[in-house]
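Sanity check

After download, print the first record. It should look like this:
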Amino acid sequence: MTQSPNDGNVSDLREQVAKALAYKGMMLGRLGRSAEEIAVYDQVVDRFGDATEPELRRQVATALFSKGARLGQLGRTEEAIAVYDELVESFGDETEPAMREQVAKSLVNKSYRLGQLGRHEEAVAVCDEVVERFGTATEPVLRGQVALALVNEGVRLGQLGRNEEAIAVYDQVVTRFGDATEPALRDQVATALSHAAAS
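Expected structure tokens:
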């Protein structure tokens, strides 16, 4: 089958449309127009959710993450969790670094939102999933998400009265990241030490 000389242009145009919509959503969010922002993210998913091109898949994942984050900020916690689940289900097996970051961040946010709902056991399970999926990652962003997940797990275990387990998790943070130089990781180590001392 011969390829039209314009096929590449169509693909480029779709990418430009997806990026423009994502940018529009971000700007609407900055203006406090949350309902319109969420509607634009839905447009990205509706139009490009079945795309196979890597750049379009990245835009869909970004739109889903941004939608989940905004719903969480609006107190629509159950909806936010559902969106994070959709993202992980759709992109959880991706190997590209940018996509792995979106999956990791979605799981961490999901664990936080579950904790807000008092669903601490579920939150702990999601934190464990983050560590299982990304615990050996070397990328700074993923290491940061693992540290966040572990600290969050310690907090949730403490709320369940499982203080010894919580302390063990905080110890993990210090063991894994105690020598890190990145400010975000150093902050998580400090938080873990503080929580462990108070447990």
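If your output differs, re-run the checksum step. Summary of this record's structure: The two ends are 67 Å apart (CA to CA).
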